[in-house]
Amino acid sequence: MLKKGMAVLKYGFVLLIVLLSLGPFLWVLLASFKTNAEILTNSLGWPSSFRFSNYTMAFKIAPISRFYINSVIVGIFGTLLNLLLLGMAAYVLARFKFRGKKLLMGAFSLSLLIPGAAMLQPLYLTVNTLGLYDKLIGLIIVYTGFGLPVSLYILSSYFLTIPKEMEESAYLDGASFIQTFFRIILPISKPGFGTAGVMQFLLCWNEFQFAIILTTGNQSRTLPLALYYFKSQFASDYGVMFAATMVVIIPSIVVYILLQEQVVSGLAAGAVKG
Amino acid sequence: MKRSRVKTGITLASALLLAMSISACGSENSADKGGADGAAGSKNTAPAAKAPVKISYLTFRVGTHASAKMEEEQIKQFNAKYGNEVEVVVEEIPSDAAYVDKIKILAASGDVPDVVMGKDGINDVLIKGNLATPFNEYLDKDVEWKAAIGEDALASNTRDGKIWSISDQKQNIGYFYNKEMFEKAGIKPAETWDEFMSNNEKLKAAGFVPLALMTGENAWTSNLILAAMIGTNGENGKAFMNTLHPTDFNTPEMIQALNMMKELLEKYTTKDALGAGYANAANAFSQGKAAMIANGPWMIGDFSDPTKSSEGFDKKVGVAAYPNNSLISTYEVGYMIGAKTPETRDAAEKFIKFKTGLEGQTIALEYGNVMPVSSEVQPSDALKEKYPIMVESITVAQKTQLHYRTLDSIVYPNVTDAWKNLYPKLVAGKATAEEVAKELTEIAAKNR
Amino acid sequence: MVRKNRGYITLFLLPTVILFILVYAVSLVILFGTSFTEWSAGRSPAFIGLANYVKLFTDDADFRQSSLNTGIWVLLQSTIHVAIGTLFAIILSMKEFYWKFARTVYMFPNIISGAAVGMLFLCMLNPDFGAVNSIARMFGNADFSQNWFMDYATAFFSVTMTWLPYAAVVTILILAEIAAIPESLYESARIDGASTFKINWYIVIPMLRNIIGTCVILSGTSMLQKMDIILMTTGGGPGNETMNLPIYIYKTALMDNNFGYSNSVGVFLIGFGLIFVLLCRNLFRIGSSQN
Questions:
Q1: Looking at the complex, does the CB of residue C255 fall below 8 Å from at least one CB of chain A?
Q2: Is-contact B319 B175, C-beta < 8 A?
Q3: Distance to chain C for A128, nearest Cα, Å
Q4: How far, in Å, CA of C228 to CA of C113, rounded?
Q5: CB proximity under 8 Å: A 238-267 to B
Q6: CA dihedral defined by B147, B149, B153, B157, rounded to 10 degrees?
Q7: What is the pTM of this model?
Q8: Cβ of A217 under 8 Å from any chain B Cβ?
Q9: Do B448 and C40 lie within an 8 Å CB cutoff?
């Protein structure tokens, strides 16, 4: 009896979570095919026909394709750079004792807390002084920094689960510090890197406020800015706005599904370490 | 196998990064500040083949913005005419709010663009920060341009004798109404506020939602009506609505207007008005859900746009002035010169002169249904035929006798930002009109 | 080992330290320094001592309300949110037929940018044509038109619901960690006749101490940055019901044009966050290896 009750509770919980997650997404998907009038009068129903005019319109109004390319570049390099740098730092912080470690951890934790609005002006100054204003590389560096705390926490807590014996046996085999990190630690930390990578990619893909402050030309702007082409003052076309939203969302979902498989395949490697 | 892949991956990534950073640094960026460029350019090049002076310009009139087409056309025509002298480097900032934020960040860093639109308090920031150049000398040199703008428009942007910005448009704002619904309710546009209220009641009785109001964003369509209520309320009200930067909102006119607005929001508007954005209000009217919306002529194009309104909707729309034969009439803040060097200042002036001169005003009227500041600019026959409501709204405007400005154009930007929180508070009864007025006064005092 | 590795330790840390200085340290110094000044866009800062802080703590109702809301949200997010995510991860780790699908779908709302999520909920909860009210109308009450985001009774709850249930990040973090638990541990427990519930409660959850602590910190502190969804849905209203510190910082800087005062709120926010992080680190003994 108790067991049955638990099972009902469990499936109820799973179902609720799935509905809460999928519902809004499907609603926007349906709305992106509707006309304005349909959205306003028949918000739950099926669109009268699956018209793609909202999508073509969306591509016409905002420079979406250019922004796409930029977002892909920023997303990929912002993620790789972040994982490389933070992987190294997190490894050292998780594994070794040295002077100033506490101070460093404290300082890095601060980066989790600085309010974004308070960083707008100082970061603009820094980026401009370094000559990185309006350059993709500037955005990549800034986003690599924004992901610092999250990646650091995720990776170092993952490294902590790896038994020390793994490295000790590598050292006994005569491997160097760097070899040990790249050949032993990195491969078995794939799930950790996968998770941190997903978080970092999403950050790069979705950030808006700094993207608009730190760039001026369309050659260095990213996709979230495209969304705002549809919500200017005195704009009122919902259908196109939802279509643009889908255009921005769908690639990140695809990337997530792909990366997720990487994470899953890494799970098998994780089991080795017991 | 796996290990080497990781390694090559990392090597590849760092190589690519390096390559990217080099190429990024190598290609001179087009958006570099015009100042340094212009100065260096004039020194090095021979006078015969003088490179065009680069000026930077930020615009939020992009994407679905009502004035996007007119902006594009103005820049296109400017380039055709002066492209070899001045190169305008345009930065598109989608969303008005993001534009204001960015200019303020740039101003805080002392780095404003060469040409700046001074709306939403940006003009104050630039003037106080000594980041703008007044137009007085330029205008004195060019009498024709001065005449094309007109005394009134210039006066509205003058502080202590200095003309800080050139207005590019006059906003004549009344309200649009649905003739069909008015007919069914047996009413005509109200001439007094009592009639306005009884009209609402009749519309409601006939089964219609009287007003498309909104309190989200900057509460635009609601605040136009609020402005009319204040502006028509005796000499004090009129004076209030024609004063820049009011600091005392605790006036009988404001309180009375707030109480009326509370009634409108409670009884005579759509269910989603509290918290609604412009899009909700505009759709409520264009989709035939509400009988009236306060807005300016730039909306006229929407009524015959099939993605926004139903077929033939433009035939059902009428335009009216506010009670007491009055109208909102505001000159936009317009354009300012933020350029720092003489070359870029001159170039910026040239660009602004084109945008605000007779040519620019004509483009704005034809492509954006924007009212010109000069009476010399008249709608073309094609435009009149395409948008009969446009002609109607000009006639209505000419008949009005009492004029006042929009709230957005007189109050501090933090007051504009406060309405979206205050209206729901008022309607929920958490604050009386007196308390809201007091709070507005406090907010205005916070502005720096 | 330590002495020999000192060079490598420096080498591994240096890039991140440089990154930290570039992105954060400069901002921190400006933030802290200008919090003692009167500073607005276009003018240079003028030192005014502690005046900003005095005003902040003695005479600012909006600040008090914002701090209170921020505190509540941090608390909710670091408890309920993490609990939902952990529970879901444990259920998924049983790898029943739906687990891959559910894991992917759960991530959707987190994949979408905050502004887009805000826009989406704004439309879903629109009193007039929103999906939620439409469903409510289908089941009986034909006049149902709850204004979720603007009614004092529901605003705080509605905004909270736009992020509280969406704990997919917690779920994937914990799932990755569960995968690292050796299979042999489960097997020996099963041989001893322990139920699934007992295995999870007594074996799995204690092993997740470090990662749960990390999730508590990450989830809690994410509430110190939450801005775009709130701005998009309620804008901090009605009144200041849903105002929080990030919005207050944004408004005082860019609307009131009072950068100095805004930065003093920023300093307060950082101090508040530091206390929270330190508390969590001690509570979960983060950083100590578990074996």
A1: no
A2: yes
A3: 12
A4: 9
A5: 238-240
A6: -100
A7: 0.88
A8: yes
A9: yes
Distance, CA of A146 to CA of B294 (rounded, Å): 44
Residue A157's pLDDT band, with cuts at 50, 70 and 90, is confident
- Would you call the peptide bond into C206 cis, given omega within 30 degrees of 0 as the criterion? no
Q: Do B425 and C151 touch (CB under 8 A)?
A: no
Assess B118–C contact: CB distance below 8 Å, yes or no.
no
Q: Do B128 and C240 touch (CB under 8 A)?
A: no
pLDDT above 50 for A270? no
Instruction: Say if CB A77 and CB B20 are below 8 A apart.
Output: yes
In whole angstroms, what is the distance from residue C109 CA to residue C163 CA? 9
pLDDT in tens, A99-138: 888 899 888 988 889 988 888 888 998 999 999 999 999 9
Chains that touch C (3 or more CB pairs under 8 A): A, B
Which pLDDT value is given to residue C288? 65
Angle subtended by helix axes C2-20 and A101-110, to nearest 10:
20
Query: B81 to chain A, minimum CA–CA distance in Å?
Result: 23
Instruction: Supply the Cα-derived Rg of chain A in whole angstroms.
Output: 23
Which residues in chain B show pLDDT less than 50?
1-48
Best mutation site among A130, A236, A242, A272 for testing chain B: the one with the most B CBs within 10 Å?
A: A236
Query: Three-state DSSP class for C6?
Result: helix
Q: How far is CA B223 from CA A20, A142, B204, B220, B374, in A?
A: 37, 40, 21, 5, 27
- pLDDT confidence bin for A262, thresholds 50/70/90: low
Q: In terms of CA atoms, which chain B residue is nearest residue A61?
A: B63
Residues of C with CB below 8 A from A190's CB?
none
Q: Does C116 contact A163 at a Cβ distance shorter than 8 Å?
A: no
Q: Closest-CA residue in chain A for B276?
A: A236
Residue B13 touches chain A, beta carbons under 8 Å: yes
Q: According to the model, what pLDDT value does residue B23 have?
A: 39
**Tokens representing B386?**
């395409």
In C, minimum Cα distance to B132 occurs at C42
Identify all chain B residues contacting A209, using CB atoms and an 8 Å cutoff.
101
Three-state DSSP at B317 gives: strand
Angle at B400 between CA B394 and CA B401, to 5 degrees: 145
Count the alpha carbons within 13 Å of B362 in the hemisphere toward its beta carbon. Answer: 11
Question: Burial code of B312-333, b = ≥16 C-beta within 10 A, e = fewer?
Answer: ebbebbbbbbbbbebbbbbbbb
Measured between beta carbons, which residues in chain A are less than 8 angstroms from residue C138? Answer: 44
pLDDT, tens digit (0-9, with 9 covering 90-100), for A194-253:
888 888 988 998 888 899 999 988 888 998 888 888 876 666 678 888 888 888 888 778
> Which of C258, C249, C255 lies closest to C43, judged by CA?
C258
Residues 6+ apart with CB under 8 A from C264: C35, C36, C52, C53, C56
